[in-house]
Amino acid sequence: MNVRKMRLYDTENIYSGDDRDEFEKDYARLIQSPAFRRLQGKSQVFGAGSGDYYRTRLTHSLEVSQIAREVARRLGKQYEFLSRKEHPGLMIDPEVVECASLAHDLGHPPFGHKGEEVLNRLLQEEHGLKYEGNAQNFRILMFLEKRAGSGSGLDLTAAVLLAINKYPFCIDEPGRLKGVYSKEWERIDFLRQTWGMPGTSATLEAQLMDLCDDIAYSTHDLEDGIRAGKIQMDRGFFEDDRLVAHVLQEITNDPSYSEANWENVDMSTMVKQVLIHYLEQWEVIYAECDREPSRTRREMKARWVRKFANEVGIIDDPETGWKKVTLVRDGLMNLELLRTMEILKKLAWVTLIKDFRVQRLHKRSEVMIERLWGSFKNFETGRLIIPPDWLESYEAQKDKWSWERLAADYISGMTDAYAEKVYAEFFASRSGSIYERD
User: Fold this and answer.
1) Can you tell me the distance from the alpha carbon of 299 to that of 303, in angstroms, rounded to the nearest whole number?
2) Which of 90, 286, 372, 373 sits at 20 to 30 Å (Cα–Cα) from 211?
3) pTM
4) What distance in Å separates the CA atoms of residue 245 and residue 253, rounded to the nearest whole number?
5) At what angle do helices 267-288 and 293-309 cross, to 10 degrees?
6) Domains plus CATH for the chain?
7) Distance, CA of 29 to CA of 229 (rounded, Å)
């Protein structure tokens, strides 16, 4: 049996018995799923609908998949051990990485990270449950989504499921902030054991998807920020000590921050150097593009994507005894470039997410999600206002899932616009017809 192409439920391919490769079937199942389509209406940085230019979760996912697929092809030619297929978790298939990239953000609720934060707080305070976007991915893929012949989500191949699983542990364990909900973890852990995956190591494909996600964040979000005028391409902006201080604070406050990665580095000096280099590169490209801002933004983004993508490689990880996908130079982890990527990610964060106007939008979205939750959280009242198919699903599965979890599923699956629509129906004076189609 090919353990990479095994499915948890349709083991005999009764419902997919055609001549397509199994990963091609996964791709089709993903892009034709409602959860994937809804990404077009979910925020990336700016609210979905803020303008035709800005990225949504859908366009972000497509861009991550393109970067990951191309890097996967290069790595397959560059590293001979990949062709030996020594272990199912030590392989990189471009089609698998592409599918994982397309699916990696399905679990994000409306209104971006603020929506995730609010739902998690409400569920924990009231019911001791967690909500987290990566865990919700598997809730969607393995339960909520439906396809012909499957009552268990999209029933993707083991390779794709494990390529999405960048946090390979159960989130319900004490102290875990990310992971997989316990019900789905039982099946993911079964696949990991079948493959013989060591400890909490992720497959190479999951690591590559995660790194390409970071590449996209550190380049594409900055392009959007420049376009919106929130990142001003002048020395006054980039040499402001307050900007440097804010970037530094975000780096050190990040839960993934490691002092070892910044050992013997003057962090303040490096942040200043990276910011000034970014501006100076902009000035050079601006002149090359005949002082045309739109062309400059695109070329700037393209060069940084190429810079990071060309440095992606694979090294031995002595801490785990596994392999690590990271930025590599001369066979070693390229810490300088990794730090540069982190600085650019935090530049996007402090100039976009921390902007007071964006924070006002976040406050508005927080109020909406809190009030929507208050409307749906109690079964006796919530069942009257939730769509019938959701109620039927709950009745069929209530021995496995609580009403509170299903109510969170419903709210988290909304697009930004649909969340506002339902909120307006409940709490705003409006006219309309009950025959409007949801």
Assistant:
1) 6
2) 286
3) 0.93
4) 12
5) 130
6) 22-195 (1.10.3210.10), 229-354 (no CATH), 360-427 (no CATH)
7) 38
